[in-house]
Write a structure and sequence with these properties.
The chain has a five-stranded mixed barrel, surrounded by four helices. It is globular, with a radius of gyration of 18 Å. The chain is an alpha/beta fold and 278 residues long. The chain has six helices and nine strands. The protein has one domain: Nucleoside phosphorylase domain (Rossmann fold, 3-Layer(aba) Sandwich). The structure holds hypoxanthine. The site of hypoxanthine has 12 residues, from strand 5, strand 8 and strand 9. Hypoxanthine (HPA) binds next to strand 5, strand 8 and strand 9.
Length: 278
């Protein structure tokens, strides 16, 4: 894998002059955060050596290099999901590459079903912790010591420092922000009522089909992570209605401006801080 990461890095560096400070994974319906990026180069996944190719409707599948308010970033427009048939190592390969390109932080977004009865459709939840219910882990197999430890610590999967900044930004901008635990199931089926109940009982606030593998791999490499989830439907007794991919996308789109503002402001704040420290 090290050789593949190196080859992909060399290829990408031949296409861009951007040295990304942050990596961003644009989740379901949030692809349009890309309209806030001053794009220098956008490379379709199928043109990138060793990248899998995204197959899901609504995912554009390209790697974007550019700036957001002069902060250099690399963004995945479209991600790879376990339910598409990829291994978790394939799903998370782009995160390995982003680290090789020098990112200092990783931001992710997704859509999920709320199982916390205080949540409403359209809410944004800051992910404070997760539960991996996939039948696999992207770090299973021989450990590559050059990338990270065999048994990575997971006591702070989501950076408290970044999360505190996000909470302040939300407060200052009158954005209501929920906080909680995100559980991942493989999908592609949405949950049955009994499965939603089970999620709630084991301590989840929302359930979805992404993000956790990317965060595991990022933490393996010691990258601070921040992830937000848009609650697109409710798995709460009495409020469960039929849902579709289209409905998920529609709700996610409506919440997009708030999430975009938070990420832009966060980037501006931490880039300034890092610059002062340098
Ligand atoms: N379950 C799983 N994934 C999802 C959901 C859900 O209810 N909503 C959006 N993504």
């Amino acid at each position: 894998m090290l050789k593949q990461i190196q080859e992909t890095k060399t290829f990408l560096e031949s296409k861009t002059k951007i040295h990304p400070f942050a990596g961003i994974v644009l989740g379901t319906g949030l692809g349009n955060l890309s309209s806030e990026i001053k794009i220098e180069t956008a490379i379709p996944y199928e043109d990138i050596p060793h990248f899998p190719v995204s197959t899901v409707e609504g995912h554009h599948g390209q790697l974007i290099f550019g700036t957001i308010n002069d902060v250099p970033i690399v963004a995945m427009q479209g991600r790879f999901h376990y339910y598409e048939g990829y291994s978790l190592k394939e799903c998370t390969f782009p995160i390995r590459v982003m680290k090789a390109l020098g990112i200092a932080n990783l931001f992710l977004s997704n859509a999920s079903g709320g199982v916390n009865s205080n949540f409403n459709i359209g809410d944004i939840m800051l992910i404070t912790d997760h539960i991996n219910l996939l039948p696999d882990n992207p770090l299973r197999g021989k450990n590559i010591n050059e990338l990270g430890p065999r048994f990575p610590d997971m006591s702070e999967p989501y950076s408290k420092e970044l999360n505190d900044l996000v909470i302040n930004i939300a407060n200052q901008n009158n954005i209501q922000l929920q906080q909680g635990v995100y559980a991942i199931l493989s999908g592609p089926t949405f949950e049955t009522p009994a499965e939603y109940r089970y999620m709630k009982i084991i301590g989840a606030d929302t359930v979805g089909m992404s993000t956790v593998p990317e965060v595991i791999v990022a933490r393996h490499m010691n990258i601070p992570c921040m992830a937000m989830s848009i609650i697109t439907d409710l798995g709460v007794d009495g409020k469960i209605v039929e849902i579709s991919h289209e409905e998920v996308q529609k709700v996610a789109k409506a919440a997009e401006p708030k999430m975009t503002l938070i990420i832009k402001e966060l980037l501006a704040q931490i880039y300034t801080t890092e610059s002062i420290l340098k």
